[in-house]
């Protein structure tokens, strides 16, 4: 298993969020979020369903606008930059969605080639092929190159989704519920892969989850989101040894469901 925290550069912040607020009508979802993420760091955002985890990563990726506060990603104020600058920024951010969102009508190779051919038109066929092979090797699925998504298991599809993201060499990875719907062994493989990606590509990552094993395994730091605010932040052990009563319901939720 990869060692956590090995490459964190605490002199370089890749994401800086201050006093972030976001409402939808009367639903005040984010109520004053502060968050700093360093180069090479895996930060887990842990929270129950509906607490605004997805809203937070959509704001980081510029897909939703904050009502108040600042969000700086890789030196860009995401609420203020032009659409073109936002597009360039998004190329440096990799998303791993709950559904792996592969194109069923394309082979694994074609799925991986797709973002490269669309965004890096100067590459030769040989370079594209090399990039595909390297990304597949990074997720341990070189042998699936000519298969169709329908022929893969849920865990394999998730890995291919991550490979398709890695092919663009992102500086930041955003993982939305990476272990949702996977059995415990496959979940552990995905957790290990998240750590391996961090080490191999020196990415900074936000992992949003309500899976405590995922949080413990992948998080250099864990931030607990409750009622629109971070109520605890630290190592997994710090957070869960804190005795904070507000985390109790979260624990119960995790072990009962
Ligand atoms: N585009 C939107 N318009 C209106 N309300 C929204 C929108 N996006 C999210 N919300 C609301 O914001 C709240 C937080 O949603 P969000 O998807 O961030 O939750 P979450 O913490 O990611 O939950 P889950 O773990 O179930 O995915 C919910 O009440 C949701 O209904």
TrEMBL record:
<feature type="domain" description="ABC transporter">
    <location>
        <begin position="15"/>
        <end position="252"/>
    </location>
</feature>
<dbReference type="InterPro" id="IPR017871">
    <property type="entry name" value="ABC_transporter-like_CS"/>
</dbReference>
<keyword id="KW-0813">Transport</keyword>
<keyword id="KW-0547">Nucleotide-binding</keyword>
<dbReference type="Pfam" id="PF00005">
    <property type="entry name" value="ABC_tran"/>
</dbReference>
<dbReference type="InterPro" id="IPR003593">
    <property type="entry name" value="AAA+_ATPase"/>
</dbReference>
<dbReference type="InterPro" id="IPR003439">
    <property type="entry name" value="ABC_transporter-like_ATP-bd"/>
</dbReference>
<dbReference type="GO" id="GO:0005524">
    <property type="term" value="F:ATP binding"/>
</dbReference>
<dbReference type="InterPro" id="IPR027417">
    <property type="entry name" value="P-loop_NTPase"/>
</dbReference>
<keyword id="KW-0067">ATP-binding</keyword>
<dbReference type="GO" id="GO:0016887">
    <property type="term" value="F:ATP hydrolysis activity"/>
</dbReference>
<protein>
    <submittedName>
        <fullName>ATP-binding cassette domain-containing protein</fullName>
    </submittedName>
</protein>
